[in-house]
Amino acid sequence: MEKKLAGQIAIITGASSGIGAGVAKSLSISGATVVINHPVEATKAAAEMVLAEIKNTGGEGITYQCDVSKEDEVMKMFADVITQFGTVDILINNAGLQRDSPFTEMTLEQWDLVISVNLTGQFLCAREAIKEFLRRGIVPEKSKAAGKIICMSSVHEVIPWSGHANYAASKGGIMLLMKSIAQEFAPKKIRVNSICPGAIQTPINKAAWGTPEALQSLLTLIPYQRIGQPEDIGKAAVWLASDDSDYITGTSIFIDGGMTLYPGFSTNG
Ligand code: NAD
Question: Is residue 207 situated within a structural domain?
Fold first, then answer.
């Protein structure tokens, strides 16, 4: 297989499970050295398992504990990775969580936690990545771009979601964060795009696929009639990080089996 990301260093936030782990594996297969970020001591073992799997298939990488909502921790992660590997070429802004609640019962704590991890975390990591991309500039043997950022958004950057106002607000915020920095840094050859997953089978949404009844109900929202897998996202992330997508910046790519096609209207509304 062609190693389209050979020699490139990728930080993947929230990569000890789910989509982040899948993306880390896909980037590694394509030749990137991967930094498997995880937030706390309790997620270290899972991150090490992802790394072991990557090393078993001949890949390279490290695990790194850092809470993406904490400015000092994010700055230290980038500084340490740059010291160890010389630079960072790709950032996958993937870490995210949900704290669901009917709106009138939503606490400020639930609101703040989701915004601070899902949105502020993406700001902090993107800022540190772009500083490094600007410092290093383009290395033509590696990539036509000076750096690539992929923001893990969601179909909920466009689909409203009652009972999840904090989560939907964070993803809507990611859309214009992504587009604003894509616009600001396109002249510097930094590409910034989002992936908007639909329903992907991971721990974050186990309630939606954990029983046959739940899965059947979920499938009514998915015209393509299957739940997505982390590899579906991983393949697109490799493409978005590679020069195959060199003319693409400021775009949200929906990977959702048609969830955003208003399936409720498929039988004449
Ligand atoms: P997941 O729960 O498996 O992954 C989320 C990861 O984020 C976990 O590994 C967790 O440890 C990490 N994380 C949480 N707080 C963190 C912090 N403060 N610092 C660093 N890491 C932290 O779920 P997932 O489905 O793999 O979610 C990954 C991303 O994809 C999220 O941004 C989520 O919103 C998005 N997404 C998922 C789906 C889906 O259907 N699974 C759909 C749309 C969007």
Answer: yes
pLDDT at 228 over 90: yes
Average pLDDT over residues 197-221: 96
Buried b (16+ CB within 10 A) or exposed e, 53-71: ebeeeebebebbbbbbbbe
Residue with CA closest to ligand 1 atom 31: 96
How far, in Å, is the centroid of ligand 1 from the Cα of 154? 11
Any domain includes 2: no
What total of structural domains would you count in the chain? 1
Q: Give the pLDDT confidence score for residue 241 in this predicted structure.
A: 98
Q: Does residue 261 form part of some domain? A: yes
Residue 1 lies in a domain: no
Q: Has 167 been annotated as catalytic?
A: yes
198 Cα nearest atom in ligand 1: 42
- The predicted pLDDT at position 249 comes to 99
Residue 30: count of CB within 10 angstroms of its CB: 23
Residue 269 has pLDDT above 80, yes or no: no
Domain at 69, CATH number: 3.40.50.720
